[in-house]
Amino acid sequence: MTYEQAIDFLYNRLPRFDRIGAGAYKPGLERTLALAAAFDNPHRQGVKMIHIAGTNGKGSTAHTLAAILSSAGYRTGLFTSPHLVDFRERIRIDGAMIPRDEVTAFVERFKERAGDLEPSFFELTTVMALDWFARQGVDIAVIETGLGGRLDSTNIITPLLSVITNISLDHTSLLGTTPVEIAAEKAGIIKHGVPVVIGEAEGVVRDLFARVAAERGSEITFADVAMPLPGATVGVDGNEYPSTPFGPLHGQLAGECQVLNMATILTAVTILQPFLPKITAGSVADGIGHVTELTGLMGRWTCLSTSPRVIIDTGHNPGGWVHTVPQINNVDATTRHIIIGSAADKDVDAVLNLMREIKDARFYFTAPSTPRALSVDALAARAGARGLHGRCYATVAEAYQAARAAASPDDLIFVGGSNFVVADFLTSLRG
Fold this sequence. Notes:
Elements: H1 3-12, H2 17-20, H3 30-38, E1 48-53, H4 58-71, E2 76-79, E3 91-93, E4 96-97, H5 100-114, H6 121-136, E5 140-144, E6 161-164, H7 172-175, H8 179-186, E7 196-198, H9 203-215, E8 220-222, H10 223-226, E9 233-235, E10 238-241, E11 249-251, H11 256-272, H12 281-289, H13 291-295, E12 302-306, E13 309-313, H14 318-330, E14 336-340, H15 348-355, E15 361-365, H16 376-384, E16 390-392, H17 396-406, E17 412-416, H18 419-429
Parallel strand pairs: 1-5, 1-6, 2-5, 6-7, 7-8, 13-17, 14-15, 14-17, 15-16
Antiparallel strand pairs: 2-3, 3-4, 9-10, 10-11, 12-13
C-alpha cells in the first residue's frame, strides 16, 4: 500500500465527520476499545496524558500546553482535529507530523488485525495516534476530543489532568440543545480521582461541573478564580500578560478569547508541575511565545501578511465570533475585506448577526470545497436579510484574489468562518 492509497482509505472508505457531518458520528466507546485492543491497548502502556474538551479554545489550549511541555524537555505527543491541509497535522510529536510510512503501516495493520470492526474515521485516527505515541515512547501526550466528551473516542484514556475550556451552542443536533445538555456531555471526560480544570462556566453549567467532579472524587479548579490575569492586554500580533505566577509573558496567540484560554492554560500548568517538575517559568514563556513554531498551529488569528494585513481564523460558531468581531474591529484598517463561508450545519444566522457589528466592511461570500458547505447563494441571501451585502465567488481562492485586487496596503483581509474555508485558502497558497 502506498501513502496515497492509505489516505484514500481513510478519507473515502470510512465515515468522516468533516465531510458528511452527523452521518459519520458513531457515539460510544465499544468500537474504539475493541480497536485499541487489536493494537495492544496503547492507551494503557504508560504514556502520561492530558485530556482537553470544550466548545471553543480547546485547539489553542492543546497546542499551547504541548508547546510548553516540549519546551520543558518532555517528548510530547499532540492529537488534535481537524487538519487544515495535511492529514498528518492531527498527530505530532514535538511539532513533527507523523511520518507518511507510519500512517501507511498503521492502515495495513488495521486491515490485517481489525478490518471487520468498521470504525469511523475519527475512531481509527484516535487509535493511530495513541499507538504511535506509545511506540515512540513519548513522555506525555495532549489529547483533544473530537466531538463532545462522554462518548468521544478519546475518552478511553485516563489522563493526569482533564481540561474543559468552555461551553457554547455547537453540534446541537448531536450533543444537546441547551448549554447544560452540552456541558453534561463534555463533563463525561471527568474521571474518578483525576483533577479537572474548567476554563469558563457560569450558573447552572458551573454547578453541573462541580457536582460531577464531587461525585467522581475529582478536584475541580475554575480558572477564572484560580488565575486572574490583571493588566492583560490584547494586540493584533499577540497578547501581553504582565502579571502571572510565571512572570510577565508574551502570548503569540492574539485576541480576547486567548486571554480566557491563557487563564485555563496557566491553571493547568500549575496543577501539572508536581507531576512534571521540568516545567519552569522559562519553558512556560517559550511555549506561550512560540506556540506556532513549536506545534505547527495555524488558523487562530494567524497573520500571513502585513501590507495589506491578511489574517486567517477558523472560528465557526457564535461562541467564537463573539470574540472575533471586536478583534477585527480593533485592527487599524481603512476597509475590512471579509471573506466568509460556512458549513451548512452551523448556526450561520447567529454568526451573521454578530458580523453586522464589523466596521467599514466589504463582504466576499464563498463556499468551501466540502459536501457540508452552505452554498454561496444561500449564504449571500441569509446575509442580505441581515443587511450584509457583497459579491459571491465560487471558490475561496477567487474571493481572495478579488479582495487582494481591491485592498490598499493599509486594509485588512480576513479569511474565515469555517475550518474548511481556511483549509481551502492555505491549499490555494501552496499551489
